[in-house]
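@channel sequence for tomorrow's demo:
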Amino acid sequence: MSENGWGEEQFEGGERDFGSGAASPEPAEGESRARAWERAWGDPEFEDRLRDLLAEGAHDIRPSPVPYHTIRRRGMIERRQRIVVAGAAFAALAAVPVGAYALGGHTTSSPAAPTPSVLVTRPATTTPASTATTPVPDPSGSAPATSSAPPTPSGTTAAAGPAAPATGDQLLDGITFAQASDGLSACLSSEFASMSGVSGGLGTAHDYRIILAMPATGDTNAPGDGIYVVAVTADSHAASRTRLICTVKGGKAEGLNTSGSGQDGSAAVVPDMNAGKLYQESALDKGAWKLPFRWGDIGTVRPSVAKVTVSYGNSHSVAVLDHGWFVATGSLDRKVTLTPHIKGYDAHGKLVYDSDQDPQYEKTLP
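structure tokens (generated this afternoon):
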């Protein structure tokens, strides 16, 4: 290099020059080297040689391909995170009892790694919301079950209830579809729904399909057992679907976790970002779980997926596929440290998803 930082350039094979026949333009008497280079720059032959040198090897420069699917997937995960965080922040303003914050969800920028969520206990002075519902079909196909809700006031029409799950196995441990429907309605008419942060509101029970109802084991963070009701937007063809996890105790809505989800076009199986609420107890009780522990796991699947298996500790489950969602359940007789291991297969038995190979999926519990 020349003393002013430009001019000759050193190459592996020796020195290359930009002038014709000289390593650099010679300055005239009393002229600085920088001035000599400025003078040389006006020489058309010098400019042509410089352009040729700059063009050499330019064809070897190739920009790396844009990771479209990764960018899109992360963007969708972050959008879901914003929905969950906004809902949690609003709920925290309503009432935050001691120990109300619990690690029990899944926010990666995925929607696949466990993330903090907030469980808010309903104030004792709040009157639980209750709405009348019409008879809804039992998932087993038997006669419709009738809700015990009070009759609809004169002059109004009873709102239709949610759609039933694909199988009766998605209603665990004696929980009836009527109980799950009432629990969903209680959540949607509670203050938690209005503070969810979901644009346009959460809608009514008629807008949803119940895909899982299971026991909710009480822990240090939220004492007292109850039930979880998991419901998703009934329109399985919608580009973006809302997923609710309602916590119901004594017929009252005690908490509501919401997120938006949708297949991003890349992964065949996408574990729910907050399914940790269903398969782990509070981090406050780490190492002291109540056993046996009833667990569940959910997520979305593409139409090409024919089978999903979930292994959790020494418990193994073949998931139910219900309108674009997988639903797996089981029971643990010992505490665990690893999250559920999820595998997806196509109709030919080919493995199309393995959570162990998913960089967005958190492999260990908090």
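heads up for whoever presents: Confidence is low (pLDDT under 50) at residues 1-23, 88-158.
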